[in-house]
Amino acid sequence: MASVLQQQTLRETVNFEGLGLHSGNRVSMTFLPAPPNTGIRFRRVDLEGKPEIEARVENVSDTTRSTTLSKGNIRIHTVEHVMATFAGYGIDNVIVELDGNEPPIADGSARAYCRMIETAGVAPQPEKREPYKVAAPLELHVGESLLSVFPHDRLRVTCTSADKHGRFTQFFSAEVSPETWERELAHARTFCFYEEIEFLIKNGLIRGGSLENAVVIRDDAVLTTEPLRYPEEFVRHKMLDVLGDLALVGRPLLAHVIAVKPSHTANCELARQIAIQMRKPLVAAQTFAPPPAQPSAAEKSEIMQRVHDGGSLDVMQIMKILPHRYPFLMVDHVTKIDGTKITGVKNVSVNEPFFEGHFPGHPIMPGVLQLEAIAQVAGILTLRQAENMGKLAYFMAAENVKWRKPVRPGDTLIIEVELTKSRGKVGKAKGACYVNGEVVSEAEVTFILAEG
């Protein structure tokens, strides 16, 4: 896969129909070519507006027996086999249209999806492909799963699988390329243990399940409609799942992934950790950038004069006092300062980054961020003395915290704080947040001043 230098999509549109594993309903799935830098997107053509979900780990909402993507009220179950197919062939940009909430399960492997790709053909695109080479080893332990990833010049997956009793322990390792993907991994079918079936049926997880699309292990017997396709079919299917879940990072990976008894939960958590590592160079660049200019003596004097006179502060003046920056600055302006009392305002926009995950389709401002807003407004009051400019107010404790009503996009949060104690480096304050004159949250906070 390292040899593929350009992004790739499909030459033609291709369709496949079959049963969904969860629902048991007939589903039609279409792969469509997509422009460069689109990534993989799932589109629900059965819903109004044909909403789309990006195949990114940030959109993973459930990992019970399969990987589910969600955005608002839209869900797509069991995406891992489709994602593994695109990753295996090195395909970067595709729209996956579905008229249901999951791809057809086919025979429980990726064989049918491979035939779709072979029918459609692969088309190179002019834009450069940008694989991510893992910068440093990562290790993850989730339940019985142990996953590690190491820097490598290609993508290799090494896996050991077994059930809780150590039955059917299998090992396999493969370097992933379009050829090895199709030959070594793509035909491995999903499997389950007989004793798990009752739970899966009761929870509606396999309404479309049968021996036509899964291998069932009962004691030492293997129940299947055909002979095993590989001597190590079970571990190879686990590797297929690992490949599909890690594809949710959104970029091709150059890494050696070592997985012991992997699960979708562990796979997706590793994808999150890799995504965090991918963003670190950006964070480092910001860290080594010149620090924001400290206010001059004249600016300090002007700001402090406004504070002492009970005047207002705009966001630029607030940032001369507080070290916080987007997306963690929780006060837009100060409207009033009166001795030990202060009033701040936070305009809660629908564009706040926390609304994307808290909660999809039902956005609510997290209570802890309202608490943070109280602490920041208290910090402005504490740092009002010129000698404290440039210091940090570390949050030490919160007491008598109450969240009374939800705060939603479009609300204006009024934050009222009173400094109740200030002795040396330690301060205490009592604060409350209001929306439309009603208390939505309140708390008593303690903080300590330290050098920045």
Short key terms for the protein model shown above:
452 residues, alpha+beta, Ribosomal Protein S5, domain 2, lpxc deacetylase, domain 1, Thiol Ester Dehydrase, Chain A, 3 domains, six-stranded mixed beta sheet, six-stranded antiparallel beta sheet, 9 helices
What does the model show?
This protein has nine helices and 25 strands. It is elongated. It is α+β, with helices and mostly antiparallel strands. The protein starts with 5 loop residues before the first strand and ends with a strand.
Topology:
Elements: E1 6-10, E2 14-19, E3 26-33, E4 40-44, E5 52-54, E6 60-62, E7 68-71, E8 74-76, H1 80-89, E9 94-98, H2 111-120, E10 122-128, E11 132-133, E12 138-142, E13 145-151, E14 155-161, E15 170-175, H3 178-185, E16 191-193, H4 197-202, E17 215-218, E18 221-223, H5 233-246, E19 253-260, H6 264-288, H7 297-308, H8 315-321, E20 333-338, E21 341-347, H9 367-382, E22 392-403, E23 412-423, E24 426-435, E25 438-450
Parallel strand pairs: 4-9, 11-19, 14-19, 16-17
Antiparallel strand pairs: 1-10, 2-3, 3-9, 4-5, 6-7, 7-8, 12-13, 13-19, 14-15, 17-18, 20-21, 21-23, 22-25, 23-24, 24-25
Summarize the structure.
This protein is about 25% helix and about 35% strand. The protein has helices spanning about 80-90, 110-120, 180-185, 195-200, 235-245, 265-290, 295-310, 315-320, 365-380; strands at about 5-10, 15-20, 25-35, 40-45, 50-55, 60, 70, 75, 95-100, 120-130, 130-135, 140, 145-150, 155-160, 170-175, 190-195, 215-220, 220-225, 255-260, 335-340, 340-345, 390-405, 410-425, 425-435, 440-450.
